[in-house]
Amino acid sequence: MSQLARRAARALTLLEVVISIALIAMLLGALLTFFWQTLTVRDQAVLAADRTQLVQQILGRMADELRGSVGLEQISFPVEHFVGDRRRIRFLTAPLPPDESYAFYRESEEHPAPRHDLREITYELWVDPDQTAEGGEPLVGGIVRTERRAIDPTIREEEVADGEDLLYLRHDLWSPELGYLEFRYFDGVEWTTRWQVTEGNPLPHLVQITVGFNSITRAELEDQDLQAYPIDQYPLGPDVPDFNRFSTIVRLPAADQMFGSRMKRLGEEVEELYQFNVPAEGEAGEGPGEREE
After folding, report:
1. Which of 87, 54, 122 shows the shortest CA–CA distance to 217?
2. Cα dihedral angle (52, 54, 58, 64), rounded to 10 degrees?
3. For the chain, N or C: smaller number of CB within 10 Å?
4. In a domain, 77, yes or no
């Protein structure tokens, strides 16, 4: 064997082996970092897509039912027509008939039973009144939907069993993932966080719905956040971006376009304030219509 062949066949030195291992380790580390970042971005995108889909379903269902709100003054269904505050809303709605109502049936086929078109719907944020989370924050279970129906049209009143309520009640825990819920109401001129009109058309013109994945705090539950962001200056909420909260504004077509609900609401608030400030009978001070002689 020649000297040149012996040089070519000699083994790697220790330094060359160490350098080779270091280069391979750097290459594997770069590849591992790339794939780890790719999986992280993918997981974040999937989470954002799931959250967006959940919020769209929740807000879409609530908006559809709100658009069907009934603005009648007198009906034969003993419920409140439209009452709401920041964390809870209750309204009477008339949803569209189901798909089977538009189908054609033969005489030999069984027709579906008719359904009452009125529903009393309540959305509220479930907060445990007896327990708290870590740090004293409220323990939130999610958004609860309650539905009350009128008596089944196929059942006569005298056929209902004794002690059974004529109104069917159903509670559903919609989304335990959502820990924040807020409603705001627009009367045609200004926004408010409380709505209760007992006469005439009770519907506001607009309703803003806000849901969030972060649980509500004690300060928000007690309306302390309105001191930092008063509703007259921030009618749609704080102007600080929050990627965990989503909002939509729903227009109620059945609302009084002549601002009758606003006038009724302001009149009831003034009457309530007057009754609160008038001293009771027998207390010191002048009563209404009394003067000192």
Report:
1. 87
2. 70
3. C
4. yes
User: Bridge partners of 216?
Assistant: none
Q: What is the pLDDT of residues 147-165, one digit of tens each?
A: 887 655 555 556 656 555 5
Q: What is the domain range of residue 163? A: 71-96+115-275
* Total tally of structural domains belonging to the chain: 1
Calpha distance 66→282 (Å, rounded):
47
In single-letter form, the type of residue at position 32 comes to L
Alpha helices in the chain (DSSP H): 3-8, 14-67, 218-221, 225-228, 260-277
Rounded CA separation 180/217 (Å): 9
Q: If pLDDT is split at 50, 70 and 90, which confidence band does 263 have?
A: confident
pLDDT tens string 119-134: 889 999 999 888 888 8
Asked if 192 contacts 245 with a C-beta cutoff of 8 angstroms, the reply is no
Quickly count: other Cβ atoms within 10 Å of residue 283's Cβ: 8
Q: Does residue 288 carry a pLDDT above 60? A: no
* Residue 26 included in any domain: no
At 289 the pLDDT is 45
In a domain? residue 129: yes
Environment class of 179 (CB within 10 Å of its CB; exposed 0-12, middle 13-18, buried 19+): buried
* Res 79: pLDDT: 59
